[in-house]
């Protein structure tokens, strides 16, 4: 049982570290950070624009982190906002500029290459099983965390 824990945590950790390294190396040439990758990716996937709240949900990032990323992207001329008079920026949709769309295409090519390299020598059936099991583990751990948080609140450990 402990061996499975080691395999899971070290495997996931190594994959995450490699993804972070790839993002860091590629984004440096744009004057950006790895954290910008997912925002560029999702903004290119949603041409009708996304709000900061949408990006928080899609990127699994907190509001402060997304706000910083969006400020950086705007500063670099990669995004613009559709700001109606009565709306605040957080509730307004962000859109890629032409420059941002070009950078997003570059990011998407990198993602495509990384997915191909990461999946080398894996059959389609193995890939399907891997992702099914990965999501099952994730869902199970989400439920376990909720149970732990519920118990901690009940015991007065969490408020």
Describe this structure in words.
By secondary structure, the chain is mainly α. It has two domains: 2-121, Arc Repressor Mutant, subunit A; 123-159. It is built from six helices and two strands; from the N terminus they run H-H-H-H-E-E-H-H. The longest helix is centred in the C-terminal third of the chain and has 31 residues, at 124-154. The chain is globular. The two termini are 32 Å apart.
What top-tier CATH class of the largest domain fits best?
Answer: Mainly Alpha
CATH-derived topology of the largest domain: Arc Repressor Mutant, subunit A
Question: In percent terms, what proportion of residues is strand?
Answer: 5-15%
CATH architecture of the largest domain: Orthogonal Bundle
Parts with pLDDT < 50 across at least 5 consecutive residues: none
Largest sheet: 2 strands, antiparallel
Q: Helix segment count? A: 6
Q: What count of domains describes the coordinates?
A: 2
Total E-strand runs: 2
Q: Averaging pLDDT over every residue, what do you get? A: 90
What name goes with the CATH superfamily of the largest domain?
A: Winged helix-like DNA-binding domain superfamily/Winged helix DNA-binding domain
